[in-house]
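Sat 14:20. Reprocessing the chain from the morning session after the first attempt stalled halfway. Input below, unchanged.
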Amino acid sequence: MNEVETIEEFYKRKFGWLPESIRNDIGHFNVFTLEPILGDPPGPLPFRRKDYFKIMLVSGHSKVHYAHKVVEVKKQALTFSSPLMPYVWEHLDNMRQGFFCVFNENFFHQYGNLDQYAVFQPGGTRIFELRDDQIEPVQKIFERMMAEINSEYAHKYDLLRTLVFELLHFAMKMV
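Finished this time. Tokens:
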């Protein structure tokens, strides 16, 4: 459990490549789709901390194992993880899909302190089970992230930070 997965290790494990901009001055941000997986659920990843933040919209029956508790996602959820929280995700369905973004702390340097938000604090709520009518607004935020990350807009990273905050506030208003 003392092992920490770096963002570089995440890219190598998940995709087999590293983005050229992984360690630039503005920090790192990227967004991906969770491609639908058909067949047997994949086995759980090792229980360990990461050195990056992750926000995920996931559909599918799952369990998230933390050090002292297990949280079940029955249908769909918006989830938050930070370098402070070791966890392992166990997918129980033979189908899952959604979106996720990853970023490091440097990405928010001088743009806000993520540690002040309950979703990133130890003991805070990290998993928000969503009703069917809540999926579309969250999905649209992730779709906007995907469009912006691929755009040539000069201030796209500022806009991406704003979209991360939009997800944070969407979730925190549910508590």
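The radius of gyration is 15 Å.
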